[in-house]
């Protein structure tokens, strides 16, 4: 190379254009590694607007939150990137929300566990199903709350934007609901397993939770979103309290009740499917 | 009721007999409009039906009666509605934000809703709109830390994502100071493609400065459609300046030069007729409509 | 105008980036994105993909700036990240659209091997130029850029086995050519 140990203008220009000899190009690259002025000279030959565009786009990506481990895991399961990015806007998937769910559960199951494992009153007490009432009451309601937060427009401040956007309202709802369901069901069913006991299956909370959420969504196609969520909550809370008052709390999770929940689930799913267009219009009627 | 007669081939938005009511209130009453490419301003007080009209154009609301054609597409048909939404940029009135979001994250969210699935394309678009509204340095700022004017600009930015063919902006200048309003005007005139822009405002000077076409909406009805100078001309001969106030005028106020300005009705004695502004005509029309 | 930069500055910038300084990242971009873009373009003809790879490179720098241990060239470090980002981009593009982003036939990769750089252009240059483009590409990707056979396969658009056999044939041809030249028989 000439020019006092630096690459000449023509050489650099030829390198950029791809017209130099193989060995010369190779030498240019080797030289660039250690020579900052030549790197600057080379950069000057690149289209400035292209560099500027990439620069601002790169800085935007730097400004966006990076991928957390959970996201990367889900991403490898084949879920498309943009769906994961979308879920970031769901309040019931935020750490703060999940923490509150977990703390409520902790209180409720703590009490039941204390009775179950005899921590409070000494060992050897008979199993008292009444201790389970708080968990039975609260568990499915927590799941319902998570799902309600996923779709109620009062919780999504930019809901009108979502309506006016081409992304399918139904799809958005589905994505959020499934995510919220999973995020809520895991701790609730997990908590139920902590207080296993005779006469009830912890997994029995699964069906009521699903039924409640389906009912709320289906009702939301008919009435106001908030009313739908509240009525779904009442649908569970009232019978649970009634049965607890009559000293048969576990009736809520016995096979008969499970069948009733399954029926509600199926009926709601049908209504939801038939009226799904409602979600494309949003809540502004 | 004025109706703009336009060459159908240039008409981008066609509204026929549009009506919408909320309970007992008629928000829109048999509105006929034809809008062209370029900027159209909707002028009217709060409650005049501007927001309802804009939300119907943005496919967020359905009319009770009448036909709407947006960019040649019918919002009643699901597939065409989707196509409208693909070409739409919408700034609703009082847009709510996820306050814990950063500016960049919020724009990312909206961009995904606009079906820009590729991350890099999204980043490029976000960079572009941030530069357009002058918030490039704020990409990492949380929305709750933004001032009102910045939040408004962010709202405009999200509407610009995806280079929409139809831009619906509900009160975009609310909360902007005069310098920002000037930038906003420049921004609108520099938009790529030749989009149809419909914006609403209750400030007459915005209209005069930004919009080559004005529609005055009062109590759900179109009271005027035309250029700002035509609008101003409707008050010709009905605007006076005097040194004192008079009881006969419909509206009077003290203007910045110390004299009293009178619009409509009878002027006080010794008043001079002055050229009307857009605001004068708007006030006159409002008074006539009983608003 | 970009001011003349020194190595020490670059290392300092990288340390600043590791501390979360965005302006340092922007400064690094201003210094290095230009040559990075050109160098990548010589390996991948599609400007979109090169743009993506450049962005990804600086993004990776931002996220992993702490990994730079301070030894050697910052520029070489950046290229090491960059070429692998480019391969990632090409791989994903190939998977997504079945479109093969053809690499330039005149692929020239950097000289990691200082010995080779030191040889006069005359003999080696001639021997290289006499190689067929495919063999040249294979040698340069694997020997000079330090890519694995799998990575080189993505870059060149062939199967891994093909890369291995081409490398072998290239080495044989080079040895023969250099030997011929030494004996003055070519």
| Strand element count of chain C | 0
What is the element string of chain C, with H for helices and E for strands?
HHHHHHHHH
The number of distinct structural domains of chain C comes to: 2
**In CATH, what is the homologous superfamily of the largest domain in chain C?**
RNA polymerase sigma factor, region 2, helix turn helix motif
Which structural class fits the helix and strand makeup of chain C?
mainly alpha
Q: What value does the Rg of chain C take, in angstroms?
A: 18 Å
Order of helices and strands of chain A: HHHHHHHHHHHHHH
Reported for the largest beta sheet of chain A, the result is: none
Q: Uncertain spans of chain A, ≥5 residues at pLDDT below 50? A: none
Number of helices of chain A: 14
Shape of chain A: elongated
Just name the CATH architecture of the largest domain in chain C.
Orthogonal Bundle
Number of strands of chain A: 0
Quaternary structure annotation? heterotrimer
- CATH T-level fold name of the largest domain in chain C: Rna Polymerase Sigma Factor, Chain: A
Radius of gyration of chain A: 30 Å
Helix percent of chain C reads over 70%
Gap between N and C termini of chain A, in Å?
74 Å
Helix/strand layout:
The complex is a heterotrimer of chains A (285), B (291) and C (186).
Chain A: H1 9-17, H2 22-32, H3 36-43, H4 48-63, H5 69-76, H6 81-87, H7 95-116, H8 133-151, H9 159-164, H10 169-194, H11 206-220, H12 225-245, H13 255-274, H14 278-281
Helix pairs in contact in A: 7-8, 7-10, 8-10, 8-11, 8-12, 11-12, 11-13
Chain B: E1 11-22, E2 25-36, E3 38-43, H1 50-57, E4 65-70, H2 78-86, E5 88-91, H3 103-113, H4 119-133, H5 148-160, E6 166-170, H6 178-189, E7 196-201, H7 204-210, E8 213-218, E9 221-226, H8 228-233, E10 239-242, E11 249-254, E12 260-265, E13 272-273, H9 278-289
Parallel strand pairs in B: 3-7, 3-8, 5-6, 6-7
Antiparallel strand pairs in B: 1-2, 1-4, 8-9, 10-12, 10-13, 11-12
Helix pairs in contact in B: 3-4, 4-5
Chain C: H1 7-18, H2 22-41, H3 47-64, H4 74-97, H5 114-118, H6 121-130, H7 133-144, H8 149-156, H9 160-182
Description:
The complex is a heterotrimer of chains A (285), B (291) and C (186). Chain A folds into 2 domains: 9-63, no CATH class; 80-281, no CATH class. In chain A, 67% of the residues lie in helices and 0% in strands. Chain A has helices at 9-17, 22-32, 36-43, 48-63, 69-76, 81-87, 95-116, 133-151, 159-164, 169-194, 206-220, 225-245, 255-274, 278-281. The termini of chain A are far apart. By secondary structure, chain C is mainly α. Chain C has helices spanning 7-18, 22-41, 47-64, 74-97, 114-118, 121-130, 133-144, 149-156, 160-182. In chain C, helix 3 (47-64) packs across helix 4 and helix 4 packs across helix 8. Chains in contact: A-B, A-C.
């Amino acid at each position: 190379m000439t020019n006092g140990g630096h690459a000449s203008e023509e050489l650099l220009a030829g390198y950029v254009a791809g017209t130099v000899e193989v060995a010369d190009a190779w030498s240019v690259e080797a030289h660039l590694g250690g020579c900052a002025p030549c790197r600057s000279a080379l950069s000057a030959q690149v289209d400035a607007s292209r560099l500027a565009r990439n620069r601002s786009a790169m800085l935007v990506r730097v400004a966006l939150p990076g991928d957390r481990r959970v996201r990367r895991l889900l991403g490898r399961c084949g879920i498309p990137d943009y769906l994961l990015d979308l879920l970031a806007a769901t309040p019931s998937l935020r750490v703060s929300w999940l923490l509150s769910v977990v703390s409520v559960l902790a209180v409720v199951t703590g009490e039941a566990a204390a009775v179950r494992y005899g921590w409070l009153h000494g060992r050897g007490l008979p199993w008292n199903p009444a201790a389970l009432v708080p968990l039975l009451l609260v568990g499915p309601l927590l799941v319902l709350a998570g799902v309600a937060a996923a779709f109620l427009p009062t919780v999504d401040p930019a809901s009108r934007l979502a309506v006016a956007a081409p992304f399918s309202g139904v799809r958005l709802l589905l994505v959020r609901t499934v995510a919220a369901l999973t995020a809520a069901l895991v701790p609730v069913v997990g908590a139920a397993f902590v207080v296993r006991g005779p006469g009830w299956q912890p997994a029995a909370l699964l069906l009521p939770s699903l039924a409640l959420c389906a009912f709320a969504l289906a009702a939301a196609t008919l009435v106001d979103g908030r009313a739908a969520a509240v009525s779904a909550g009442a649908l569970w809370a009232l019978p649970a309290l009634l049965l607890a008052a009559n000293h048969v709390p576990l009736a809520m999770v016995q096979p008969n009740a499970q069948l009733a929940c399954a029926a509600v689930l199926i009926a709601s799913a049908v209504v939801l499917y038939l009226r799904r267009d409602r979600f494309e219009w949003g809540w502004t009627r | 009721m004025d109706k703009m007669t336009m060459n159908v081939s240039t008409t981008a938005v066609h509204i026929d007999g549009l009506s919408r009511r909320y309970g007992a209130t008629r928000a829109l009453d048999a509105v006929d409009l034809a809008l062209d490419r370029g900027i159209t301003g909707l002028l009217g007080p709060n409650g005049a039906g501007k927001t309802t009209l804009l939300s119907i154009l943005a496919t967020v609301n359905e009319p009770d009666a009448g036909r709407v054609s947006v960019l040649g597409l019918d919002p009643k048909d699901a597939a065409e509605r989707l196509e409208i939404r693909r070409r739409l940029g919408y700034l609703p009135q009082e847009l709510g934000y996820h306050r814990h979001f950063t500016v960049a994250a919020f724009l990312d969210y909206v961009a995904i809703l606009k079906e820009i699935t590729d991350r890099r394309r999204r980043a490029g678009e976000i960079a572009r709109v941030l530069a357009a509204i002058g918030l490039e340095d704020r990409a990492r700022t949380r929305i709750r830390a933004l001032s009102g004017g910045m939040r408004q600009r962010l709202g405009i930015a999200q509407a610009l994502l995806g280079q929409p063919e139809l831009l619906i902006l509900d009160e975009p200048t609310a909360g902007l100071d005069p310098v920002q309003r000037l930038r906003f005007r420049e921004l609108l005139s520099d938009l790529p493609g030749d989009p149809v822009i419909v914006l609403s405002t209750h400030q007459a000077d915005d209209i005069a400065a930004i919009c080559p076409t004005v529609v005055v909406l009062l109590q759900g009805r179109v009271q005027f459609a035309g250029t700002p100078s035509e609008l101003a001309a409707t008050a010709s001969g009905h605007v006076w300046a005097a040194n004192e106030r008079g009881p006969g005028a419909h509206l009077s106020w003290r203007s910045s030069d110390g004299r009293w300005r009178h619009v409509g009705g009878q002027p006080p004695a010794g008043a001079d007729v002055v050229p009307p502004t857009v605001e004068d005509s708007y006030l006159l029309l409002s008074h006539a409509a009983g608003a | 105008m970009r001011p003349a930069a020194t190595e020490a500055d670059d290392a300092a910038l990288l340390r600043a980036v590791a501390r979360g300084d965005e302006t340092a990242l922007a400064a690094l971009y201003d210094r290095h994105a230009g040559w990075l873009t050109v160098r990548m373009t010589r390996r991948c003809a599609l400007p979109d993909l090169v743009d993506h790879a450049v962005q990804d490179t600086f993004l990776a720098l931002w996220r992993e700036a702490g990994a730079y241990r301070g030894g050697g060239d910052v520029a070489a470090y950046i290229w090491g990240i960059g070429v692998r980002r480019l391969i990632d981009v090409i791989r994903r593009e190939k998977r997504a659209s079945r479109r093969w982003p053809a690499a330039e036939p005149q692929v020239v990769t950097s000289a990691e091997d200082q010995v080779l750089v030191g040889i006069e252009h005359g003999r080696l240059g001639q021997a290289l130029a006499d190689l067929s483009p495919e063999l040249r590409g294979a040698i340069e990707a694997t020997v000079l850029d330090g890519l694995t056979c799998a990575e080189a396969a993505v870059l060149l658009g062939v199967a891994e086995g093909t890369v291995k056999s081409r490398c072998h044939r290239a080495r044989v041809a080079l040895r023969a050519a250099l030997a011929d030249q030494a004996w003055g028989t070519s």
